[in-house]
Amino acid sequence: KTSQNTSISDHQSEACDLLLSVIDLINQTVGDAISDMLLVEMILAAQDWDVEQWNKAYTDLPNRQLKVKVKDRSVIQTTDAERKASSPVGLQSAIDESVAKYTHGRSFVRPSGTEDIVRVYAEADTQSAADKLANEVAVLVYKMAGGIGEKPKLH
């Protein structure tokens, strides 16, 4: 075990033990809400935070979700927990270029599990910017992943 490695500091060893405890606590297979809440309690205690302090650390950004109809949803492949498009080639770099234009911009795409659509998620510092980013990314998906029907646009 890394935590028993004598070449690391006591602090590093404690961190390893804590990480191992976290792995034992959470249920990655089913995402058990009770164990997730216990993990939150553990982190808050370790940080000496209460729920109010934790809430203040989070800022919800405006976002927009769109759907793009495609001929074949399997054209879209993702990595990094569905946050990066690995296929079609060039899509992720095009998304990254669009995202870079917006303050606090973030966007990702993923294929639906049940129908031939691609879901687009975008967020930015304002609702208008999130809407524009989502639309830009939806158009990229439409062009690069075999979009069908009407070209995406915000309603």
Overview of the molecule:
The chain is α+β, with helices and mostly antiparallel strands. It has two domains: 55 residues, no CATH class; 82 residues, TATA-Binding Protein (2-Layer Sandwich), CATH 3.30.310. The protein is 42% helix and 17% strand. The strands form two sheets. A three-stranded antiparallel sheet has the order 1-5-4, covered by helices on one side. The protein has a two-stranded antiparallel sheet with strand order 2-3.
CATH homologous superfamily placement of the largest domain = Alpha-D-phosphohexomutase, C-terminal domain
CATH domain fold name of the largest domain: TATA-Binding Protein
Fraction in helix: 40-55%
What structural class results from the helix and strand content?
A: alpha+beta
GO biological process, one term: UDP-N-acetylglucosamine biosynthetic process
Protein name: Phosphoacetylglucosamine mutase
Pfam families: AMG1_III (PF21404), PGM_PMM_IV (PF00408)
Domain Phosphoacetylglucosamine mutase AMG1: 6-49
